[in-house]
Amino acid sequence: QVQLVESGGGLVQAGGSLRLSCAASGRTFSSYCMGWFRQAPGKEREFLAAISRSGASTNYADSVKGRFTISRDNAKNTVYLQMNSLKPEDTAVYYCAAAQAFVVVAWRYDYWGQGTQVTVSS
Description:
single chain, mainly beta, seven-stranded mixed β-sheet, four-stranded antiparallel β-sheet, globular
């Protein structure tokens, strides 16, 4: 069992930056691949980024490639999402999730955080 808690969301102006954190409980964090997703009102949950167990491999959605960076610190049981050049269309609830495999589809992720709101003003 893994419990995930996101933090770092908030209100930011367009063009600004935020760094989201996701703290995981338990001693098995390094055995999971991690991902970030978001969901805007009235829209489906969208994959943003994934990172392998060691952090050596990453994968990004085209919508955030070059602007967002996923990273992890296994010693701190934490995964991060650095978000730069934010746009109003990035406004959503952001979720981290843990999976047994390095995947991009939400249904393959076993554990989810409660989400953190990111609002980007124009």
